[in-house]
Known about the structure:
Four copies of one chain form a homotetramer.
Chain A: E1 3-6, E2 16-17, E3 24-26, E4 31-36, H1 51-54, E5 63-69, E6 77-87, E7 91-95, E8 120-126, E9 131-135, E10 142-146, E11 150-155, E12 164-165, E13 169-170, E14 173-174, E15 186-190, E16 198-204, E17 221-230, E18 239-241, E19 245-252, H2 255-274, H3 278-288, E20 293-295, E21 301-308, H4 321-329
Parallel strand pairs in A: 1-4, 3-5
Antiparallel strand pairs in A: 2-12, 4-17, 5-16, 6-15, 6-17, 7-8, 8-9, 9-10, 11-14, 11-16, 13-14, 15-18, 18-19, 19-21, 20-21
Helix pairs in contact in A: 2-3
Amino acid sequence: MELIEFKPTKEQLNYTFGGAAPVMKIKPGTALKLWSEDAFNNTINKITDLSSEKVDLRFVNPQTGPFYVEGAEPGDALAIHIVDMKPARGHGASSTIPFFGGLTSTDRTAMLQDALPDTTWIYEVNSAKNTVGFQSRFGDFAVELPIECMFGTIGVAPAGGEVRSALVPERFGGNMDSPEVRKGATVYLGVNVEGALFSIGDGHYRQGEGEACGTAVEGAMDSIIIVDLIKGAAPAWPRIENDEFYMAVGSSRPMEDSWRIGQVELIRWFQDLYGLHQMDSYQLLSQITKVPVANVVDANFSVVIKAAKELLPNVSAFKSMHASLKERAKDLKL
Amino acid sequence: MELIEFKPTKEQLNYTFGGAAPVMKIKPGTALKLWSEDAFNNTINKITDLSSEKVDLRFVNPQTGPFYVEGAEPGDALAIHIVDMKPARGHGASSTIPFFGGLTSTDRTAMLQDALPDTTWIYEVNSAKNTVGFQSRFGDFAVELPIECMFGTIGVAPAGGEVRSALVPERFGGNMDSPEVRKGATVYLGVNVEGALFSIGDGHYRQGEGEACGTAVEGAMDSIIIVDLIKGAAPAWPRIENDEFYMAVGSSRPMEDSWRIGQVELIRWFQDLYGLHQMDSYQLLSQITKVPVANVVDANFSVVIKAAKELLPNVSAFKSMHASLKERAKDLKL
Amino acid sequence: MELIEFKPTKEQLNYTFGGAAPVMKIKPGTALKLWSEDAFNNTINKITDLSSEKVDLRFVNPQTGPFYVEGAEPGDALAIHIVDMKPARGHGASSTIPFFGGLTSTDRTAMLQDALPDTTWIYEVNSAKNTVGFQSRFGDFAVELPIECMFGTIGVAPAGGEVRSALVPERFGGNMDSPEVRKGATVYLGVNVEGALFSIGDGHYRQGEGEACGTAVEGAMDSIIIVDLIKGAAPAWPRIENDEFYMAVGSSRPMEDSWRIGQVELIRWFQDLYGLHQMDSYQLLSQITKVPVANVVDANFSVVIKAAKELLPNVSAFKSMHASLKERAKDLKL
Amino acid sequence: MELIEFKPTKEQLNYTFGGAAPVMKIKPGTALKLWSEDAFNNTINKITDLSSEKVDLRFVNPQTGPFYVEGAEPGDALAIHIVDMKPARGHGASSTIPFFGGLTSTDRTAMLQDALPDTTWIYEVNSAKNTVGFQSRFGDFAVELPIECMFGTIGVAPAGGEVRSALVPERFGGNMDSPEVRKGATVYLGVNVEGALFSIGDGHYRQGEGEACGTAVEGAMDSIIIVDLIKGAAPAWPRIENDEFYMAVGSSRPMEDSWRIGQVELIRWFQDLYGLHQMDSYQLLSQITKVPVANVVDANFSVVIKAAKELLPNVSAFKSMHASLKERAKDLKL
């Protein structure tokens, strides 16, 4: 298997899904060793770096990519397996950007109150212990938290000639901010344009479900992924598979619509996997799904619907793509 | 410790929070061995029992209670520890009630489409294996699922003289339909009226997060709970504690508001537990919360926000009430 | 026609729909000359009266009523015709109650920002010009605005034994805060309990659609209404008729659900009025409805759907009740 | 004043805001005599033309434009005055597209119910009476309705390099589907890219507020508009002015957020127009705004907030642009 290494220069970073020329063409089955810049574009590195002063909102969530996958056509499913991830910098950062986040008024949930204080927290990485350190900004409380790397964004070019900001989660993936997009996961995305044009970015050293304050422990990331293609198997919305779960992700507003989208998507998947009638799939999943919220802060809110494999008979999804990618990933190391 | 056994007659069942005379007075610290009827009021017992024919919507979610807790006054916190739960009947039932549920139009999300088919699934209890059996209604698929008992409803009388249907989750608890309300959990509810007037019901042999189709594996339940009181410590919204997590539950519409309520409630709790500034509590919880959806089908949608104790320094909540209740529960068995 | 005058004492005011004993029994067809207290319960009378200091939230939206209507049974429609309204006090008041209103975080749309300043505006009534005077609190701008009296609340006891705060708009009417509930309108409400138990209150000397800041120009009100009954004709949600429009009001959250409820209710009404198929009623109303928002600040948001009579063939609604009530109202004067 | 006539060929039609090359460059102050295709792209012309068979969703809401306005730069306000509109075809059409519309489940409000029947209504234009004819599809009811022409879409290229479908209403205008965008209105849009790149389309011969079934009386349109520029005066969200009202339009989900956006935008405008403090502007508009819903069916829902000029002292907005454009429009005729 081919392993291609790619670390974008500042000029090679992109800030949209769709609308950018591919950084390279790859064949299905290619492994990529990637570096991605943090969501703040490396502008927040100490607690005196305030988002309102340092962050240029035109240049956030810089994307590594897009990659043109040879042979990918609308209607295909792109499979992206995350082999490994680790922090590429010695610290992560989180900020309460004025009028951005889940517990503040925003440009959408518009109100007349003053903004919360623009505050920055720096999380030092302790590689030996595999932790990041939370340190209070208004007191002495400190605690070490396990590093749990994930990608906030993973997506392809949208349909219909649209170009969307890298801050947006949607049908094409994008800024879903789900902790499920981590090592060991295979993400399935429907291809909308020739070459699929996928990219990744917005690495988080850890993130709570919901990403309440609007930013995770944001950090540059080293990663290895394998990219493959399943012809004619495009899901309607992003699906994720790992060793434990089948998952679907809905992204919309209000949040009950995100949930509805994801729940219907998993019902459809289960109809296929187990030959179930729609009503039986609805019933069965009603009794077994786990529903972790992903983000309640982005242009769309994202909700994950997941069903544990251990509760269910063993079947093959997407032609056993996940198992195959795991097998191929065995010898790859960061 | 006093252990009082109570199995309501059909006439003793109640269908509201508030508005019903107490079935008995108990002292704080009392243990109760309870029986609760299923949400359908025992009308759905075979697959030919259709909800549209058998269920009287005036008499659903029958409550065991209300119990008047001596000394409970507005501003106090009621602590209800669930010692144990087990099925009190040999089968559970689930139905897709017309125009009720998460993936159908409803009286609120009103549309013009026809209802989904009114369908009933019966889940036989296998006590030896501790499972319930899912059996397709439109095919041959069958699978045994672990029993994971929980209460759909647990609540007190509302404030302001209101009386609410037992189908409603709100600030007073009620029909939150959260799988977290299970064995080992201590639920904290703010007292609104003298005596608190709490009740429980709507037992589920298992339920997926979201309760997508509108009903869980509904079943009559045997349970033991211990009820205690913490003077002057009323939380604004329901909180839950177990050995692993601190939790808060928000219930409103749209679902992002349920999330906001729960997230703010846990932030407030963490400010108290760890002496944190609001902004530090916001930040810390942003990186560690788990956010399982509870229900997306009731009069309000419910979302749970939870933080793992193992990530955090050891502190005492509600005067160590949870630990105390666990200790007292040791000798109690169903 | 009987004309009964009723001015409640402070002790006779009620603060809920349902749950209160009737202040009197009346026969269908009775005219009532009523006085209603303002929403603040007469606590805000000068700009130094701050809502956070003066208003007791347990005693807001005091209701004049409930009235027991003889012969009213569940399934009937109560028709309440507003003959006339005028200010019963020389000034109205509006306040930005902390964490209440449409452009501030609230207990539901919970956030971490500070409250907007608690500010009071007093509107002097100019009876000669029939205006109220807006006077800036933070500058010199002043303007006279026409008095356009309306009731914020009009409702009956809820179904299912519920008791709801007078702050809540719902299926039973209540705190809809619609400017359409004004002189010349006939409001149709479905009866849920024997006697209907309707009440009115929360008079506004004027109000913008949406009631953005949370309070209108609140004021005590003199009014005359006529109450009548249409057996077996209960609408699912409140309907309103005046000389120009057929209307339906939906109240829920999120606001699109309020809209859906009202739109479906008017579609159902048009199916009956014109013998239309559901799809034709949907289509026709899609091209002619006016949709003024009523409130975006209460426990539920309210949206009015209305269709102009002048666009349509002349038909009789509710057995020509509106025309009959208008005729009967001719000799009644405030 | 220059009057340029432009009727696009089928190949010149565009389907996005942003992402398309300008059809021509014009100077500020130019009058344009335009023809626009209907939203269905002329595929629905008789009742047997079903949307599911005839409409290609990649080619709906065809835009006339984009026009490059010389000198327009980010931060400027584009002013588009609608001088006149009239039907350019002898009939309009409306369809209930499967899983599209306000009272059906959709790809966002995803559910499991069957679609409503795909049905087409044709409205014959009666030029003499200036009406369109509604004719029941499932019965005999028919009625003539006044023609009230409006543009469903009017917008500029989005910010941030985004390209959005012509079905989307947003900060850049777009598919707001507001009946206020009609003859006599001046629409102000913030410019995001050099040349502004505005386009118009989606003409409606009439439409109810909300556009409940998802489509209006869709028809090709002849129109005259005048386009001008106010340097450095970009509003945050679309504003509209006519002889009677100042208006702002918010577009988002859930609908309360659309309302919040529009209400805040009008508050900001009134702070400027009348030198008001934020709290006074909030208060004043709370008592005078009209709030007609525009659409509850598109990718975002749109709500209009409007304040009547007759209630207020006379002031000049956008350097009296509306009055100036009206004056200049006097001699222009369709």
